[in-house]
């Protein structure tokens, strides 16, 4: 069975509203003969004459009267679907956004982000979920609306990406730790007892590879899954945590931070989303909120204390 030409709905709507081939033709900017052919197609498609001659006028059949209101609503709905989205009214927006982030992002950037969302769109709810891996499936399926992290080769190529900030690793210790005083060399740093951060539970990472190139090896006593956990342990012990500087700015209060005495490359933290949400006004607004929250946080973030030497 062939599919009907949905363009005929607009023609039928105008014909039933005007009750005249000539007037309908002028309204749709068609010739009378083209409108007559369209009416013939409609009669063939519906199996009903729709409009019949009564003297000099055309009158609708019972089937046409039955269809008139339904067709009008269908055309209006179709026009609404194809019309550009109306201006977003944040005060009336009711929506839940799910954001997938690494541990520490919410603690550091969440307060500023939540305050802005509450002020501008009180009907919006934010749902933060942990990021256990780099799998792009949650963004593809729509389970997650926005994600933050470092773009890697395994990131799905169709995802939209916008950089949020550049970051670097710093060392962090509790007050009174030996590394809180004096120049911090690579030997002193490697000689301490360390916390390793790995979502996969791996003991060694890029820092250890760089230390090995220098003929050094650090002693890792604990492996944890997130930065805030590592900082909590370092605060209450003599262990050394190595964490992203900007990502953990609010979490390092009252602790001693220092630049790593080895050359660990900086990295870019970005936000990622699926193309289906690219033009969504509410999602564009959310992306702006996240971007501004990160920028506001950096305006007040202190530089790491201490001096490092290779």
Structural features, described:
The chain has helices spanning 7-18, 21-28, 32-46, 62-82, 105-120, 137-141, 186-191, 206-213, 227-235, 281-299; strands at residues 51-54, 57-60, 95-101, 124-130, 146-149, 160-167, 169-173, 183-184, 193-197, 219-224, 240-244, 256-259, 267-273, 307-308. With 310 residues, the protein is α/β, with parallel strands linked by helices. The strands form 4 sheets. Strands 4-3-5-13-6 form a 5-stranded mixed beta sheet, covered by helices on one side. A 5-stranded mixed beta sheet has the order 10-9-11-7-12, covered by helices on one side. A two-stranded antiparallel sheet has the order 1-2.
